[in-house]
From TrEMBL:
Residues 118-297 form the Mur ligase central domain. Pathway: Cell wall biogenesis; peptidoglycan biosynthesis. This is UDP-N-acetylmuramoylalanine--D-glutamate ligase. Keywords: ATP-binding, Cell cycle, Cell division, Cell shape, Cell wall biogenesis/degradation, Cytoplasm, Ligase, Nucleotide-binding, Peptidoglycan synthesis. It comes from Sphingobacterium alimentarium. GO terms for biological process: cell division; cell wall organization; peptidoglycan biosynthetic process; regulation of cell shape. ATP binds at residues 120-126.
């Protein structure tokens, strides 16, 4: 049990799980297998599939409520990342000195596997999936978990791997204390979810840097020296791990960089140099060069062969809803970037395409500052079609920057409008900058509806 010494958390007694999604149900099953008295509580309605799983395991649960007398007697609590620290129930648990931790923290106690942990405001899903793909192709016994894939706890309990690639959000990191990453990656840090961090950027940055807590001299820390917030924060932290920076703006003796001939180069002490032209990467665009650098550095640390790395970096197909090519219809390119739920993700998307973009923007606004998009919108966007309920701030931000800005009544309506506004050679881009919960269940449903509407043209 390499990550968390037994002394930190109770190893028996009552385990309460708050939230019965993928991570909660996985933690409940692991807890049951380790001999805890497990109780699962969810304020919302538990999905049928998860209810069936809990029933099959004989785990007691409640749905649609939190019964305090069944929760406040816990020895340890594992909570869903979605429950904020300010929730009254969490405050009560804290006041009683009951440990409240994340599923990742809980499960890490019970595995000796190598943990590769990736965070960042943008690009973490792509980098996590690419890394997983590369390691799997190289024959490593690797699992995929965290914000993506099957629950880490469930895999540790029932189908363990030698190595895990974990996509970690700041919300997860907030409830991680003694966990240790063998390889920690911070891709970038831009304003996101600030409502959870008292609207203070420093609090959000500190949350991301929890990724490197507990690292040792034999571990690795991968980060981007082109990222302003990351570089600004570095002096505040004592970094024990070996540092592997990456840059597209400067030549680095150790780490990853792009040379004057557009070759991605990776240099790590005691490993042979890696080189690949960025035009050969299957994922194109500046942001994807960073994602490839991070995955490439991980692969090198894991001593993958250069040929294996090149094959993977040249053949990987991106995840759904992240700059996903849907169709070319009448010479117009349709791109589904529904996973872009913040302004910075949209910046990356706009940066990836040539001018004459018809942009589908909007949804539940999380207090977005659209200022950083203004120049790119002016240079590249010919029309904006607003989707969802929060459209006034989009109009205010971009009315002077584009010739056409209109509201739509549905995704089908938005796609039809876009098809009439776009000409041959243009790109219709769904990259909303907002959450999806007004018109859709989640960003996946939003992206699927976009793809359906495109295919119906």
């Amino acid at each position: 049990m390499r990550n968390i010494a037994h002394t930190y958390y109770p190893q028996s007694g009552r385990l309460v799980i708050l939230g019965a999604g993928e991570s909660g149900v996985g933690a409940a099953i692991l807890g049951k297998d380790k001999g805890f008295d497990v109780f699962v509580s969810d304020m919302g309605v538990i999905a049928d599939s998860y209810q069936a799983q809990l029933e099959e395991e004989g785990i007691v649960f409640e749905s649609g409520q939190h019964t305090e007398e069944l929760i406040l007697n816990a020895a340890i609590v594992v909570k869903s990342p979605g429950i904020p620290e300010r929730a009254p129930l969490i405050k009560k648990l804290r006041s009683l000195n009951i440990p409240v931790i994340s599923e990742i923290e809980f499960a890490a106690q019970y595995t000796d596997a190598k943990l590769i942990c990736i965070t960042g405001s943008n690009g973490k899903s792509t980098t996590t999936m690419l890394t997983y793909y590369m390691l799997q192709k190289a024959g490593i016994n690797v699992g995929l978990a965290g914000n993506i894939g099957k629950s880490f706890a469930l895999q540790v309990a029932r189908s363990p791997f030698d190595t895990y690639v974990l996509e970690i959000s700041s919300f997860m990191l907030d409830d991680m204390y003694h966990f240790r990453a063998d390889i920690a990656v911070i891709l970038n840090i831009t304003a996101d979810h600030l409502d959870r961090y008292e609207y203070k950027m420093e609090n959000y940055v500190n949350s991301k840097f929890r990724m490197i807590q507990n690292q040792r001299a034999e571990d690795y820390f991968i980060y981007c020296v082109d990222d302003e917030e990351t570089v600004k924060a570095l002096p505040r932290f004592q970094i024990q791990a070996q540092q592997l920076p990456m840059s597209q703006l400067q030549v680095l003796t150790v780490g990853a960089y792009v040379d004057e001939n557009n070759n991605l180069k990776i240099n790590i002490p005691n490993r042979d140099e890696f080189e690949m032209n960025i035009e050969e990467l299957s994922l194109q665009g500046k942001h994807n060069v960073y994602n490839n650098m991070a995955s490439g550095l991980i692969a090198k640390v894991q001593e993958l062969r250069n040929q294996s790395m090149k094959e993977s970096m040249g053949s990987y197909v991106n995840i759904s809803h992240r700059l996903e090519h849907v169709a070319l219809i009448g010479g117009v390119n349709y791109i589904n970037d529904s996973k872009a739920t913040n302004v910075n993700s949209v910046w990356y998307a706009l940066e990836s395409f040539s001018p004459n973009i018809v942009l589908l923007l909007g949804g539940v606004d999380k207090g977005n500052d659209y200022e950083m998009l203004r120049d790119l919108v002016r240079q590249k966007v010919k029309a904006i079609i607003c989707i969802g309920k929060d459209t006034s701030r989009i109009h205010d931000a971009f009315e002077d920057e584009v010739d056409v800005i209109v509201n739509s009544s549905s995704m089908e309506d938005a796609v039809n409008m876009a098809s009439h506004l776009a000409s041959k050679g243009d790109t219709v881009l769904l990259s909303p900058a907002c959450a999806s919960f007004d018109w859709f269940k989640n960003y996946e449903e939003r992206g699927d509806k976009f793809k359906e509407a495109v295919m119906a043209l």
